[in-house]
Specification:
The chain is globular. It is an all-alpha fold. The protein has 7 helices and no strands. α4 runs antiparallel to α5.
Length: about 150
């Protein structure tokens, strides 16, 4: 399979999966009624930020996938993607703020682990995950604050 086809498949998987999950679990009345911290961003910001991050996640995964001896890094990449896709249904659909907080903390740890594992072998892939780590750290703070306030 060519590198371009593989990249397209990664983009479809990650961006497509993110869009599907985001659409299916869009915040509704329950979320609007929650007490939120003063630093809670407006809802419109989440879709563009996540779209950009999903492209970066896909490219990082693709870069690692196309190299040799990357089984450990790819295992972490798949773990973070699974945790990422799990968070929204748990938070928004199940309305389980506490379990979602545990998931997002595990997600943050897996992102940091991916950065650590890939930084020597593929610096670009590691750097693509830095904004993702920052956003998820912020989202974890937001999730934890919502947990405390509600």
């Amino acid at each position: 399979m060519s590198r371009i086809v593989t990249l397209v498949l990664f983009l479809v998987l990650v961006v497509g999966g993110g869009v599907l999950i985001g659409t299916a679990t869009a915040p509704g009345e329950w979320y609007e009624a929650l007490a939120k911290p003063a630093f809670n961003p407006p809802n419109w910001i989440f879709a563009p930020v996540w779209t950009i991050l999903y492209v970066m996640i896909a490219v990082a995964g693709w870069r690692v996938w196309t190299r040799t001896h990357t089984a450990g890094a790819m295992a972490i990449w798949w773990l973070q993607l699974g945790l990422n896709f799990l968070w929204s249904p748990v938070f928004f659909t199940q309305q389980a703020i506490g379990p979602a907080f545990v998931i997002i903390l595990a997600l943050l740890v897996s992102i940091l682990a991916f950065i650590s594992v890939t930084r020597r072998r593929d610096r670009v892939a590691a750097l693509l995950f830095v904004p993702y780590a920052a956003w998820v750290a912020f989202a974890a703070l937001l999730n934890g604050s919502i947990l405390v306030l509600n």
